Write the structure tokens for this entry.
Amino acid sequence: MIDGYVIVAAITLASIYGLLAIGISIVWSSLGMLNMAFGFTFAAAGYGAWFAAQQFPDSAAAVLAGGILTGALVGAAVCAVAFLPLHDKPNFTVRSLVATLAISLLGTQALLATFGPRVKPLPKIFGLKAFEITEDVVVTADKLGAVVSSVVLLLLVLAWMKTSRRGLEIRAMMQNPEGAALVGIGVRSTAFAVMAVTGALAGLAAVLLSQTYFVSPYAGLLPLIKGLIVALAGGLGSVAGALIAACLLGFTEAATSAVLGGQYVLITQFALIIAILLVRPRGIGGLLDETRE
Amino acid sequence: MTRWKNPQLEHDPAHAKVQPRLSLVGRRRWWPKLRGDGDELWRRVRYPFTRRTVLRVRGEYNPKTLARERTIVDKRPIWWLIGLTLLAIVPALVGNTSLLSATTIFAIYAAINLVWMLIIGTAGIFSLATLAVVGAAAYGAAYFSIQFGLPWWGMIGVGSAIGLVFGVIVALPAIRLEGFYYALLTLGLVELCRVYVVQSKVFGSATGGLYGADTYVPESLQDTDGAVMLGYYAAFAMLLLALALYRLVNGQRLGRLLRTAREDEAFAEAVGIGYNRARVQVFLISSVALGAIGGFYASHFKGVSPSIFSMDQLLLMLAMIVIGGIGTAEGAVVGTLIVVLLDKMLIEWGPMRLVLIGLLMLGTVLFTRSGLFGIKAQFRAWRERKKSERRAARTEKGGEVVPEEATDIQDKQAIYYRRQDKAIRDYLKSLVTDELIEEHRRKPLGQHSEALERVLNYFRRGPVPDKYAVMAIKPFEAYRVVALAGRRGVPPRLVDDRVYPTLDEAYHAVFLRRVNDLLES
């Protein structure tokens, strides 16, 4: 039952889930905000990529850049609307959660009003080639491209966070926001950077997922939910935990759809997450959270 | 012959030579007053068999006129009465049935939101599983009704039972998980239900919903205006029941336990509140109620469609309670009214009406602390802050009371004392000269000039706290200046480290300090 096909599917899903979950996880741990507008960022980035594809039909780089840039812009806009006015107000966590949910509602509906309910296809940016690994395991180019580009971008982001000045500031905010503010790290400018980078991650995920699915106003909902539950199972704020959870859930999804059928995917994933959370209420890597308070 | 001139006219503000500069003064709250004749002052209307009053009324004597009067402290019951009366006569007010059916939907959603408010407001648990419970109960009830011919009252019972099961399922993680982990989990639960229902053949994936369930509208009334009317009153009764449940849970012991735990879990634990138990109780109560509403929903619409699990529907419900204000029953009802009216009246706007609702929700959460019904308190707090800022900018130490401050001082005598004191000090300041100080230095005790005598008299009657005095360290050899504490048992404190060899020099040092304080004030 568990053959090469399942493993390939699991790796593909895990890489995209990792992309989604790390975005949510970083935002939560550095800004203390749950970004529920992530799904809207995703959908908007899909439309950005579609728009770029209309302008430059032959260029894969243009489609990728369109998605990533739109994602970063929308992320920064969400930061300007939901984080900046609220971050020093009482009851920030609940209010920012509601604000990002409101952005998600009105943004999705605005996309629906602007582009209509019809789905839009994206060009196959990785071509249509297929590679045979063994006789029954065939890896198509879009899957390979998705895995490679998401791993590359993920590594780039992690390296940037490890080495650059801005990355140092973000990590300082993740460890202790007040301490970071005391040593002169600008909360607002860092927030913009964080939201733009995670928006760019969502944009890349949007382009990659749209290789298989389509661009539509509601396209962001399922990635949002998946990203949230992966981030949740991994422990909000833990990059390593999110990666482990992404692998676990990606494998669960691939195995479930191969063995039981597609409609049981969410159920098995949920059973797994509830089991994880009952054993470790703060997720797999969620030990740091205790000290965050 | 000169005409008689009224000497008091000089003090009349209209004829004053110097008009005082009037600045904006914050008003005291105005309360409508009722007459309190005889024993009316102390009479209260109470709910039968309880000590609870219908209307919170304060009986008091007017401090100026000594008239007996009553103040209604909490006017909300009156507004509730007016609002519910209006809702009861809505069918007579609105002619067309489409508006009436929109009001029916409002009543159902308001009932759901009231029960939800028990969890999200009273218990402070950010649960988004409400619609999952309602939808699951509605689906279960519709399924039983279609398959086994369950009557409509049985559907409500089955709905409650499914709600109870769901309540146990969603309550278990709520004890283990912290706020946001729980919110995300429940969000996923709703999506799980939607995906399951959309793909399941048993629950009508082919027909887009499960329809054909029994309804409480009798055969004879089907498809008439009477059915719409009956539906409205049934939903209204549901709303009233939900209100009663809200009042019963939120206003009683369980609600108080939950609200304490919401503010501070550690404190609640320390005072002996088992908040986990209370939370499980409120989850079970609200889930049974939501299940009953779900059963009613299925029998009202003769079935249910997967759109009840959709994200848009969930966000609309959240918009309702956010706009109204989390934590109040009136917020739940009025927020629902606003959102449902916008949603149903502007149907030709298409998706833009949801954009409008989203903007409204965003504006509410950005600018208000707790929705529409928190605006009044927030405005008052803002006005108080402005008032005290302005007061702080205008008050001088020991000066006359500024009007903003005067409204807050209960003892009016204190205000006039400070005015008199200020006038005296202004006069005495003009008397202090170098000659006067020199006179005191030469002879601290004994007979003085009139000016010095006046100054010394003023110093003598000053209040004891922080009054300067002389302490003999060694009589006739060493004296020091101290300040009295003014409180029994607290020793005086030394004000400096100078030591004076004679009593007269110490007296003069005290005099100089007092003069200094006088000139500084």
Chain A touches chain B through 47 residues (CB under 8 Å). The longest strand of chain A covers residues 130-132. Chain A has one domain: 4-292.
